[in-house]
Design brief:
single chain; about 180 residues; two-stranded antiparallel ribbon
Length: about 180
């Protein structure tokens, strides 16, 4: 047996890739293989681990343009449907991760998929609270979830209100400077 050609290797990789997909009512191709700690699908190709949504994009669209990242239009990190993936700048990707993006994605899910999502939600929050958080348009202190005031924590996907965070930082800084003044007195 001779060495496999690069085309044959790519075809075998694609066959293995397709076997790890489960199509759901929302149109997502949910990954049934390994997920990393951030919830992204992982795929072993060419002796290396890769994020499966990136591999899917490359299988179906060619190389990812330099300087761009892949955005999940469906907001489902485990989805590898190439129709749900788009190459965008990091800034554009971040701006899309706001309340409107989540509401749009949520509205595409069937009730069964919503229940599954809620059941997988954070162990700390109740299941109902998890669903409410996902569709909330304002943070708990009343600031609107907008791209310019919202930060998405990369490791968890949770939203953080930058206005509230700035207020907390300001209070902490004031508290620290007061304790420094007291200790110097």
């Amino acid at each position: 047996m001779g060495l496999l050609s690069s085309v044959e290797k790519e075809a075998k990789s694609y066959e293995r890739f397709i076997k790890r997909i489960s199509v759901v009512a929302s149109g997502c191709w949910n990954w049934t293989g390994v997920l990393d700690r951030d919830g992204y699908a992982r795929f072993h190709k060419s002796k290396n681990q890769h994020r499966a949504h990136r591999v899917s994009y490359e299988f179906h669209n060619g190389a990812i343009p330099q300087g761009l990242t892949i955005d999940h239009l469906c907001k489902n990190k485990g989805c590898v449907n190439p129709e749900h993936l788009e190459a965008v700048t990091k800034e554009e990707n971040a701006s899309r991760h706001n309340a409107e993006g989540y509401k749009k994605w949520w509205s595409t899910l069937s009730n069964k998929d919503k229940v599954k999502f809620i059941e997988k939600s954070s162990k700390k929050a109740s299941k109902v609270a998890a669903a409410k958080k996902l569709t909330a348009t304002h943070c708990r202190r009343g600031h609107e979830w907008k791209p310019e005031t919202t930060y998405i924590v990369p490791s968890t996907g949770h939203r953080r209100c930058n206005v509230c965070f700035a207020e907390v930082q300001k209070r902490a800084k004031a508290k620290t400077s007061k304790s420094v003044i007291k200790s110097n007195s």
